[in-house]
Specification:
Elements (H helix, E strand, L loop, with lengths): L18 E4 L15 E5 L6 H8 L6 E6 H9 L2 E5 L5 E3 L5 E4 L7 E5 L2 H7 L2 E6 L4 H6 L4 E5 L5 H6 L1
Parallel strand pairs: 3-8
Antiparallel strand pairs: 1-6, 2-3, 2-9, 4-7, 5-6
Length: 161
Amino acid sequence: MRIPSTRPPGREWLNGPLVWAIDEWHQPMYLFPRDCPRVLCWPTSHTSARDRETWFGTADCRMIAFIESAWAARVYAGALHRYELPLESFVDLEDAGMWVSGQGVFPTHSDTLTDLPGELHARGVSLRVLERLDVLPRLRATSLHVSAIRMRNAESYRAEA
């Protein structure tokens, strides 16, 4: 059974039939198997030097992605189909690079990505494998931008339920 997401007033339409897309900059957030729980963070113009040093140190990356060790084999062996879509019918949700179209679209190009860690690295993302994603509460207390996806599938969250 599909359960609609809770949407703010006036945004209920986002639970309807839509084609979803992500912009190039935010694309690394989705270079994982669909149900893989992950936490990504990156500095913004409001990030303190201390937070940047604590979490990024001397790492030469624009983003860090954390996954659980239970998902590592699936990430390393995974493949994704990436589609480029025409922009004309899409509306910018002004939320983490997400765009939607209320009409069907045909891809202008497609690729099969077979080295997901390599794709992340090529986009400036440091992939870090942890036993548990208990890093999330500590990251949320920082001045970094934090995005947590599919956390309901994380071992650490199932163990707490």
